[in-house]
Design brief:
Length: 231
């Protein structure tokens, strides 16, 4: 039965690890916060130790238990074969409200509509030509000059941020016909970074906490509101 698939799968997953301790009241979050500076490497280590699937236990008062998996069979089961049995749920949409009702934040019929529309567009020959011209223009006229300037000045470059800005500008040009110019010599606009950071904190903080911050317009929620207005 689809309704029972998820809880059964979670209950049968590993719940302990020599790399992170499940403390009373606070769960595994002390160890996670201690490794926040290397969170991706830490998650990889934990998953490798536990057969690619692991249950993260959050504080008992925060409803932050999570299932981590990098097992291809699990991912295929959840995202392909039985996608309809694993809805994102209302909490996901609240956390990622900045995405609106786009394909990354939608479900069921709306998700299917977005998917069919996107696939139809991506297979259109005229759109493919436009995509190629736009991408090469952004590479030649913007990305390469930024890298050359950084090389001349001997500056360190965060390639993840650089290509994120490149993708953001290219996507805006393709979908909106507007170039936000976030990829420039002086790397203006921290809007996307602020939004990502705030969404990450929504995963960590109890819902009541970040909702209070949003109501008071303080902390990360204030930055997220400004980022949403800008975007």
């Amino acid at each position: 039965m689809p309704e029972n698939a998820t809880p059964t799968f979670i209950l049968n997953g590993p719940k302990s690890s020599r790399l992170v301790t499940n403390w009373p009241l606070f769960g595994m979050w002390p160890g996670i916060l201690r490794n926040a500076h290397r969170i991706h490497d830490f998650a990889t280590d934990v998953l490798e130790e536990n057969g690619c699937t692991f249950i993260v236990k959050g504080p008992c008062f925060a409803n932050l238990d999570m299932l981590l998996t990098c097992d291809p069979a699990n991912i295929n089961h959840i995202l392909s074969k039985n996608f309809s049995n694993y809805p994102k749920g209302p909490d996901f949409k609240k956390i990622f409200e900045i995405l609106g009702d786009g394909i990354l934040n939608s479900e069921s019929e709306l998700w299917e509509f977005h998917r069919k529309t996107t696939m139809s567009l991506m297979h259109n020959a005229k759109f493919q030509n436009f995509l190629e011209r736009t991408s090469w223009h952004t590479v030649e006229k913007v990305l390469v000059p930024v890298l050359e300037r950084a090389s001349e000045l001997g500056l360190e470059v965060d390639l993840q941020e650089l290509f994120q800005r490149f993708a953001f500008d290219a996507t805006c040009i393709l979908t909106l016909g507007y170039d936000p110019s976030s990829l420039a010599i002086d790397l203006p606009l921290k809007t996307f970074d602020d939004a990502e950071e705030a969404v990450l904190f929504r995963h960590i903080l109890p819902k009541s906490c970040w909702k209070l911050q949003r109501w008071l317009q303080i902390g990360k929620e204030k930055k997220l509101s400004k980022a949403a207005d800008c975007l």
